[in-house]
């Protein structure tokens, strides 16, 4: 990356830190503007990419290598698993996962006081996450396609998820919501959302 090998970058990683986390930190520290060449070698094959750092969002979205179909946030970043990326059929579907988790960070959702509050947080994250995805240029129908596939394949959906509610209800709510004003400004966020302190 930029003439520096991954081995060299890994030497500076904090002890016990996964390399992919440190790599994300290292790339985030890259100066804005100048292009960086990233070359990936797999066996004898080599693929090069040219990356240019641009300030888009101060909140990191991290991919964790994990086959699970899930995402979460820790109050400072949004995490989407490699399982989400592998099973998604479009960037639109990934955008909803990332948007939902970014919404938790923006809303200051860290530790709910109970199940009712947690369910409200999830509903709010759905709405803001969809708004973020739409304002970023993703298509609402394509965003929800992955949720529909997931619900169709979920043979245990009758058990329900008490923290997230029915996927069918969540999809209907997101389909019915009006188009957000873009760019999405804090003053235009739906009423009732918590702001991070």
Would you give an account of this structure?
- By secondary structure, the chain is an alpha+beta fold.
- Helix content is 43%, strand content 14%.
- The protein has 7 helices and 5 strands; from the N terminus they run ααβββββααααα.
- It has helices at 6-11, 19-28, 82-87, 91-107, 115-135, 140-153, 167-176, and strands spanning 35-42, 45-52, 61-64, 71-73, 78-81.
- Strands 3-5-4 form a 3-stranded mixed sheet.
- The protein is globular.
- The two termini are 36 Å apart.
Please name the defining characteristics of this protein.
single chain; 197 residues; alpha+beta; two-stranded antiparallel sheet; 7 helices; 43% helix
User: Unreliable stretches, pLDDT < 50, 5 or more residues?
Assistant: 185-197
Adjacency order of strands in the biggest sheet: 3-5-4
**What percentage of the residues does DSSP assign to strands (E)?**
5-15%
Number of strands: 5
Cα end-to-end separation: 36 Å
Seen as an oligomer or otherwise, the chain set is: single chain
Radius of gyration based on Cα positions: 19 Å
- Largest β sheet strand count, sense and barrel closure: 3 strands, mixed
**Helix coverage percent of residues?**
40-55%
The average pLDDT score comes to 78
Shape: globular
Summarize the helix and strand pattern as letters: HHEEEEEHHHHH
How many alpha or pi helices? 7
The structure class reads alpha+beta
């Amino acid at each position: 990356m930029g003439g520096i090998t991954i081995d060299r970058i890994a030497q500076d990683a904090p002890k016990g830190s996964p390399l992919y986390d440190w790599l994300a930190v290292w790339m985030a520290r890259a100066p804005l503007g100048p292009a960086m060449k990233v070359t990936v070698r797999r066996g004898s094959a080599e693929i090069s990419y040219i990356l240019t750092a641009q300030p888009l969002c101060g909140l990191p979205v991290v991919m964790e290598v994990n086959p699970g179909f899930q995402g979460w946030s820790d109050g400072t970043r949004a995490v989407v698993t490699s399982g989400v990326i592998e099973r998604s059929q479009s960037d639109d579907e990934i955008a909803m996962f990332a948007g939902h988790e970014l919404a938790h960070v923006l809303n200051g959702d860290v530790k709910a006081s109970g199940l009712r509050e947690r369910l409200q947080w999830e509903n709010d994250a759905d709405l803001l996450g969809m708004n973020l995805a739409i304002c970023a240029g993703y298509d609402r129908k394509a965003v929800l396609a992955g949720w529909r596939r997931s619900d169709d394949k979920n043979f245990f959906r009758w058990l329900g998820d008490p923290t997230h509610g029915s996927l069918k209800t969540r999809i209907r709510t997101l389909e019915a919501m009006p188009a957000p004003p873009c760019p999405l400004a804090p003053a235009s966020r739906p009423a009732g959302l918590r702001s991070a302190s």
